[in-house]
Amino acid sequence: MALNPYDLFDIRSLLSEEERAVQDTVARFTDERVRPIIGDAFDQGWFPKELVSEIADLGLLGSSLPEQYGGGGLNAVSYGLICQELERGDSGIRSFVSVQSSLCMYPIYAYGSEEQRMRWLPDMAAGKVIGCFGLTEPQGGSDPGAMKTNAKRDGSDWILNGSKMWITNGNLADIAIVWAQTEDGIQGFVVEKDFAGFKAQEIHKKMSLRASVTSALFFDNVRVPEANRLPNVKGLKGPLGCLTQARYGITWGPIGAAIACLDEVLGYTKERILFERPVAATQSAQIKMAEMARRITLAQLLSLQLGRLKDAGNMQPAQVSLAKWNNCRMAIDIARECRDLLGGAGITTEHAAIRHALNLESVITYEGTETVHQLVIGRELTGINAF
After folding, report:
1. Which of 46, 235, 321, 387 has its C-alpha lying 20 to 30 A from 374's C-alpha?
2. Which of 69, 93, 125 corresponds to the end of one domain?
3. Is position 367 annotated as part of the catalytic site?
């Protein structure tokens, strides 16, 4: 029996019935609703907002949260498969769901009060309230401890000043989860879009994640009520805990991008005739595609085991770093190699490889650059912090 070229080790057989059903549902959505429009969206630089309600109706926003807050109660592997199938369409679609679920809904659930959970989470799960996550700053980048944004007490309120950069969903968002320095350490605040002094400014001229909204956020004496402060966390462990959740999903997403590129190039090289034979009949092309399949298989096994560890409550941040580093590097290398196998046709967005390659330049950078994750593993190996 022929092997599935995108699942050479039959990893699907290791999934539960529910996990397979989740994957199939999201795969259909990606094939029917995302892929037909995403090339034009990337070309023209717009996010397909019309998909938000459909994504919500499928239960993909906050899918791992308890049902009482609008979530689906799905396990970590199911969430990973959601990310994989969405990014098979485009990194921008997966990023939208990652930010809403892992960076906005998760901190409200994990660090918020019960009142805050009931106020925002059901509407966020329904796609009625969109969130963004404000951590990265113009001068901070990989060093969130150098945060300049600050919040100071003023009676029962807080006065917020500062700015954030490279914020996915910024101009779509109804609320921003903003991390700021206070006299009592870094704390999180839910900043509503109509608060006076709060402004989101969309970033243009991007060559990556063009089918995604990316913004800068500015806070000029923004008055935030105490009721909007996340009460159950202080210090960097708050935002870093959110990033661990999101990075977990990112380990799965690039697998989908790599599969999309391999699928495209397999079809193309069988049809493209050069020197009186298909490109797929050459040793050089077969070796390249075999290498892609090998790396995809290793990434699949890595993320599946990571998901099982997460579901068992045993996942460590360094393990997430290793998987994010490996899988993003795998996917960007495959996307570039597929672009090459497509020849001149590979530079147009009529094919997926160049779009995925450009998107992955962001994915390999955000939520910890490749170098950051290498140093995390180096610290784990040696016990010495080289940051």
Report:
1. 235
2. 125
3. yes
